[in-house]
Amino acid sequence: MVSIKRPLASGVAAGLAIGVLAVTAPASAATTGKPTIVLEHGAFADASSWNGVIEELRKDGYPVVAAANPLRGPAEDAAALRSVLDHIQGPKILVGHSYGGSVISTAGANDPQVKALVYVAAFLPAPGETALELTNKYPGSTLPDALDPTPFTLPGGRTGTDLYIKADKFRHQFAADVPAGTAALMAAAQRPIAQSALEEKAEVAAWQDKPSWDVITTQDLNIPADVQRFMAKRARAHVTEVRASHSVAVSHPKTVAGVIENAARATR
């Protein structure tokens, strides 16, 4: 088992099951004239973490798909997301939360239908970088002390370690500005990420040749704000800073949806 160094990588969510589409909108880009917004959750969450954002986007007429992220590793998870993207016709905006940023950076590369990338308290790795390496770049993450590592074995003998956030530490670590009852539900429904996913090197970076937007969370205990600022500056992203926890899509859905819509309008 690879030891977890302090401060550890991101806050994001995963699981062993691979879903395809968690949420779909009845409209399509072909009927609305607007790009489809594809949302990729991160570790320690699931697609329902986008519910508030989805409501705002659909209210404004955007077709939306929230994909289920396997949380096994950037390459494997990007392949799962690519299967979703290939099923959607027309222009698309990819949105990634936390570790989901690593996934959209891979899945969105070399796809002319992906018009923009929106990162939400997320990783923007360059080729050769890992989520763990980026988190360690500046101090501030308190995630290591909140983690509950759990060994797993898959059919075929594949083994590894899944990372959960301890239930009694979840709200403080991941969702400090979310109501206590909501945070408790999030903790119970969290999906784990494979520890190896945080140590896997990125192979491509779609942000290098596609426009990007970035929601930076200044009260983040998973990915320190200084790390987020470093990645956003390097990517020349359009930045919106929010005084929020890592779960900004839950606590500030209108703000996040507004940034996504700005990206959609700018690339039409």
TrEMBL record:
Keyword Iron: no
Signal sequence extent: 1-29
InterPro entries noted in UniProt: AB_hydrolase_1 (IPR000073), AB_hydrolase_fold (IPR029058), Sec-Metab_Biosynth_Hydrolase (IPR052897)
Gene3D superfamilies attached to this UniProt entry: alpha/beta hydrolase
Short name of one Pfam family: Abhydrolase_6
Keyword Lyase: no
Domain AB hydrolase-1 positions: 37-257
GO-annotated molecular function: catalytic activity
Keywords for this protein: Signal
Name of the protein in question: Pimeloyl-ACP methyl ester carboxylesterase
Organism of derivation: Nonomuraea jabiensis
